[in-house]
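Sanity check

After download, print the first record. It should look like this:
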Amino acid sequence: MTVLQFQPMKSAVDVAFWSELGDLKLNTWRLSEEKVNLQGTCSSTHGTGMPAFVQLERSSFTKSAAATAQVGRYSVPGQLQNFNTEKGFKDLDKTAALKQAGQRIWLNILSGAAEEHPSCLCLFVLLSYADLKKFVYWSWFAFPALKPPEPFKVARTATLMQEVGDTTAAEVASACDSWRQPAMSQEEQPAASSSAAPHLPFWLLAKDTSGTWQCLPLTAWATEEGCDVWLCMADPSNNPDHPGWPLRNILLMAAKRWQVTTLSVLCVRDQRGKLDSARSLCLSVVLPSIPSDWEPSGVVGWEANSSGKLAPCQVDLGPSMDPHRLAESAVTLNVSLMRWRAAPSLGIDRLQDLKILLLGAGTLGCAVARVLLGWGVKHIDFVDNSQVAFSNPVRQSLYEFEDCLHGGRPKAEAAADKLRQIYPGVVSQGISLTIPMPGHPVVPSQVDRVQADTQRLAELIEQHDVVYELMDTRESRWLPTVLAAAAGKLVINAALGFDSFLVMRHGGPPSDATGSRESPAKRRLGCYFCNDVVAPLDSTVDRTLEQQCTVARPGLASIAGAIAVELMAATLQHPLGIDAPAAVAGEHVNHEELPLGPVPHMVRGQLSGFSQMCLSGQAFRQCTACSQTVVDQYKQHGWSFLWQALQDPKMLEDLTGLTQLHAETHARGMHHQGTKADIEKDTEDSKHAGNDAGSDDASIPDIDDDWTTL
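Expected structure tokens:
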């Protein structure tokens, strides 16, 4: 007799398995390191040179054992533990992990579960770490096998044909092949058929009283004991002398549960889906005696790597994958980490699916675009009408020196191209368009162009979810504000001074209720023009050369741009979205409901002194841009209304009642001055008269100051 040796198992992992693991890590497991059940498959070998392997594929995470119902192919249960860090993966106590898996197998043997479900004797363990930025996967497989008190020995080894002859071998092959046919549906299965389970790796082969060979489940051992019974295994081994690794645990089960010291074993090996009697092995195995109080002394089974060492394997899929997909996955991972570690209720998809329109591709536009990429936004369009100048690249991060040559590339086009170079997954286009502005004269030959630009701008705003107003002049923001208010779009406004900035979000669209005297807490928030009591005019007409350029401290745009994007993100994470009320200092924050915290209306910052404050302002009923009156006029008259406002901004003051407000204010001021003069005269007269004649009680009503609430 010689010591029985077994061919070790190998893992065969499909690339799609690692891809699915990465997706599950990103979207489901996140930071969890809990163990996950897998279903691998194993096959009786089809020829020499084929390794004994367990195969994993994409469906291994979800498929049931029945899904592997093919001849010679059976399901193998496994457990995956994926670690968040490479250090955690490498520092795990591997001995303890393997012992724990072995203990699970031993308990299944003792309870009889292994006879009901033989696949549990083939349990495998997979430890992994996934570097999803580089698509490098570390893994280490184990196929736990319990150590018996003494080695198993083999008294005789022969092929099935050598052992029983051609005729009997053919009968045995027929019985085993019939047993391993795919399971029939309940409707197709004959009432008298046995409970064949082709996905089981082990079964019994016995000869009945009529001399017919039949296959039975392991649970039939007690009724067949004493008869001519063989233990059969779908053998994954390709070695002509040694069986596969899974035989180890079932031999120990036979010694413990069946209390046998010798056992006939048939290692079934296939050829084209049929039992190959010339290659299938018949073993006469001698088993050790197992005392009733015996416990396994150890567990073995770690898989060796390609160098033959017991060490983890590394799979680098980065070079074989599309670089664009690698970039997209890495960007998604960056944003997902925020949800995993800090904000579990963060709606990532809500941000990544946005269509953003940036009006202005200058210093602010470049800064905003880069931060939007950081949030994983994949659709960003630029609108600008200027070319890249030599002064731009040092301050505007999306341009290079080459963009300035030959008169300069159109800014919108160059910015969109650079954005796609930074992140190929972004959809970005540059639109060269001049935004019509109130008070800027238009010659007759340009009227059609101005109308076309206005129509194009309206279409762009309608097609996007969020509009950023990042232009140089105040009046250039008027038309987009009107169009966005009419379309109900979220507007984020950013403006720079030399060392100060303003970032604000416009409130929701006006409704009939906004003209009523409701409480300030319920009033919608104002727009960029709600603090104005005059219509927007041409602010560039008297500017000198230095006044025509934006003169700001170099770091200011990056600060304002980042705040502008974060303000948008926080607004869209609020349950009320565009209608979210302004944050109130000291209010309680439910981070489950507001993952990015409360949302201010406007943020004013000052680099001189490095100060910042959050303010809020209610919508002004007489606003020249977002009031109900202006929006209604645009919806009713369209281009004719806009053209009149562009040509004569004073019309906006007449329309909204600002002209009347100016007149009333002036009259009240004159009345106040006259009353004050009369009081002074009466006081002087009373002094001369030697009596104490009191002044008149002049009641001066306050001017409606809803628009000044800050």
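If your output differs, re-run the checksum step. Summary of this record's structure: The first strand starts at residue 2 and ends at 3.
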